[in-house]
Amino acid sequence: MLGGGQLGRMMSMAAARLGYKTHIYCPEKNNPAEQVSYRATHADYDDIPALEKFAGEVDVVTYEFENIPVSTVEAITKTTPVYPNSKVLEVSQDRLTEKNFLNDLGIVTAPYEGVSSLAQAVDVLNDISYPAVLKTRRFGYDGKGQAIVKNGDDLIAAWQKLSSDKVIVEGFIDFDIEISVLAIRGQDGEIKCFAPVENQHKNHILDLSIAPARIDDEIRDEAIKQATKIIKEIDYVGVLTVEFFVSKNDPMLRVNEIAPRVHNSGHWTIEACLSSQFEQHIRAICGLPLGDVSFKGEARMTNLIGEDILKMPTLLNDPAANVHHYGKYEVRAGRKMGHVTWLYPDKI
């Protein structure tokens, strides 16, 4: 496992349930995944000797976040299978490349254009118009690396804030809800999708996921169809997450982004589905049959951000609350410390 965060932690626990031992590789010590894994290597992602030694001690490699260097995956792939492959990292790590890939598949996104200067951004906004969103092409998540611009003054401030010459300008989508589909593809090409989940955010960080999403069947079917097309075309193995914008005044279902990994919006699957997203990912990368994606009941998952984790004693008094602590030692504002899922079997 490349990466030692909470996603790696939950995948390691799922792997243990299936009889596998997980070896974590990441620079940071005392990480959440290491606490529940068989072994850990602490080294940088560009340390080739350490990567080669690690690769020689495991049978298959995966990763728990998408900013792993492509060169790291390519180095390991020389001796050991890595799923998903490096191609999806090349696509998903650059917002411009990602949107080009999606549009080439006939999948609709927000209108967009890559720019490298403030003057170019001004020209693009003459076509896309305000409001719009400026985003760095790389290394953005949970609202980082982006800014909304409503006029020319906003544009100047946003450009200075992003401090990059690799930026993408996106038209602002006035969406009603955001949904995500978690698709799984096995080594044999089998594809399954969990039903779309509805996501609500606070301060650009996921706050609440409602599963299944409160959408029409037509939208549900189209979202699953598009996620299936994406995961097949990119020759993906594992869990891939596709985020969509749904708008009452827009007939198009628009993809916001893809994430080549298990995802925060799928944590509810641990309690609500026969096989969680984490187990599905392990099944896929280890060449096992994919599990059942059907629901045990409606689920609602909320993140415990920063000092929310201090509510844990109270939450544990709620017999319906499924509480997860990620084992992080330091509480910080905006940091994901855990989550809670409530399951409603009579509402499915």
Task: Tell me the structural class.
Answer: alpha+beta
Query: What would you report as the Rg, rounded to the nearest angstrom?
Result: 20 Å
CATH T-level topology of the largest domain: D-amino Acid Aminotransferase, Chain A, domain 1
Quick one: how many beta strands?
Answer: 15
* Strand coverage percent: 15-25%
The tally of helices reads 11
CATH homologous superfamily assignment of the largest domain: ATP-grasp fold, B domain
Judging from the principal axes of the Cα atoms, what is the shape? globular
Cα(first) to Cα(last) distance is 35 Å
Structural domains: how many: 3
Using the coordinates above, name the CATH class of the largest domain. Answer: Alpha Beta
CATH architecture name of the largest domain: 2-Layer Sandwich
Could you provide a short overview of the structure?
The chain has helices spanning 6-17, 48-55, 70-77, 86-92, 95-104, 118-128, 152-162, 217-233, 269-272, 277-285, 312-315, and strands at 23-25, 39-41, 112-115, 132-136, 146-149, 167-171, 177-185, 191-193, 197-202, 205-211, 238-246, 254-259, 298-305, 321-325, 336-344. The protein is α+β, with helices and mostly antiparallel strands and 348 residues long.
